[in-house]
Amino acid sequence: ASAPAARTSLKQIRELVGRVKVEDIDRDTVRQFMDARSTKDKPNSVRRKTAVMLKMLNEAYAEGLMARHVKAPKQPRRAQPNHRCLTDDEEARLRRIMSHDSHEYGQLVTTLVDTGMRLGEALDMEWKAVKPDFSSVTVVQSKTGRVRSIPLTKRVEQIFRDKIFSHKPKPWTVDRSAMYRSWRKARSFMGLDSDSGFTPHALRHTFASRLIQRGAPLEVVKTLMGHAKMDQTLEYAHLAPE
After folding, report:
1. pTM
2. Which is it for the CA torsion 135, 223, 239, 82, positive or negative?
């Protein structure tokens, strides 16, 4: 899903095992890689990078390049999710502050928090993804490879109605790096510099939490979020114990 992240993982794998012959790679080799990365990375990051390495070894075994299948060593415990959600006041302040840099930034904040789209999904979408009557948007290039349709709220519907008259090939002309700079500036202005969870992805968490708190069935939330497994959706279930 992320080429830069994949290249980083591959570089780190090669640094440790690049001089080891393929036939000599075993569980100890994988364990050494995990131990080496554990001193620098968080558990979830170690798990992801190890998964890349094991996938490569599985392919090597399937292609006959290795005589034995390398099984995964015990993985670092996955950190418990701590989904940061925005309050209504935080959302309004964030939108107001970022709109000073660009009107589109404020519109994008509203769209992300009302649709649950990932930032990349929103910026990559084309006009054909928006239904002609502005009732929904279809996400095609999702992280999981699944296609999903998300109904639009009245305020997002109005944003797209206003933007379509610009005759641009895509709804959004936002420069991603500039948008992140604006976000960091707004976070600082709001006194949230130390809040590591206050990122654009928090808007997606906010979307899910609001659905749950308003009684949306978990299956509906799973579909709208584009989750591959129900386990991901269940991470929000504590917001509505009933």
Report:
1. 0.71
2. negative
